[in-house]
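Something for you to look into today, if you have time. Could you write out one complete protein record for me, on any chain you like? The space below this message is yours for that.
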Amino acid sequence: MGKIIKGYWDCSSCGTTGISGDVRNCPGCGKPRGDDVKFYMKDKNYLSDEEAEKVSREADWYCSYCGALNPADAEKCKGCGAAKADSEKNYHDLRREEQAKADAAAAKKAERDNAALEQQRAAAKKKRLIGFGIAAVAIIAILMAIFMPKNLDAQITGISWERSIAVEQYQNVEESDWELPEGANLHEKKNEVHHYDQVLDHYETEYVEKTREVIDHYETVYEYEDLGNGNFEEVSHEEPVYVTETYTEEVQTPVYRDEPVYQTKYYYDIDKWVEVRTSDASGTDHNPKWNEPTLAADEREGERTESYHITVSVKGDEEISYTVNEEAWKKLNVGDSLKIKQHHDGTAEITSENGVENLTVYKDK
């Protein structure tokens, strides 16, 4: 058992303070201490060993009839004579009830405070949302200005066309590939690197510095237990004190290497049609034609390509060129007025006075 320390109490009737814990009636007004008494320590006034031996470790009991606090060994109330057996509470029960009421009051206050705080947060959130809404509207307006289609009034200032015919020659060419095509004349095949795979090569040892909390020593900590009878008991226990320790930990880190993966590569010659030139034609009228090439004995005609364009003037000075399909291009003439819906991705829809409606065209680079 720990040492016993004298406690004190205050009289709630006359206001006398610092009354010794072994005094049961207020020296100021004579009122016995009751259910509102709360013992406290104002200094460490240790009792002697002889005095401590006479002190009970049990709390005073509370008389349900007159409200007086009585020593644990008293079988009858010193205030009214009621039997101890007729009472159920002691000093600690009273303090627990008092604490429960305080906790309930604190919980209600916290609930009210939280409700008020939530109202404040809701108001602040509403303001933020309004601010965000204004910002969002501004951003949307900016994005619309950037990404929404632009409606333009334009006039055609030029038309053009381009046509091209590829000319191919049957040649013998040398090539290499990972597969041998049909008809190829194989020269050789080699085992070569096709690609690389990452494979584990080894582990490297690394030393990493780390920290941890370790017990350095123990310290004696004292606490003071209210015995509920005007005295306190000093209780001690040992608490660990920690320090930060630095240590080195060995870590194995994997190291990878590029492992070549080999495949057979074929070297060969093969007869094939190869484009050697093009026969081009272009113009700025509505009479597109092909420039038919003169072919040698070992030549042939290859792919034919064609494209049709219009150039328009916007706001009198800016000129834009669009690629148009042949059918619509034939209907468009220099001087025609156009309605253009220009998109940010370079596409546009054009409508003309000559029956071309909402035709998707592509802006030339």
User: Anything to note?
Assistant: The first helix runs from residue 49 to 53.
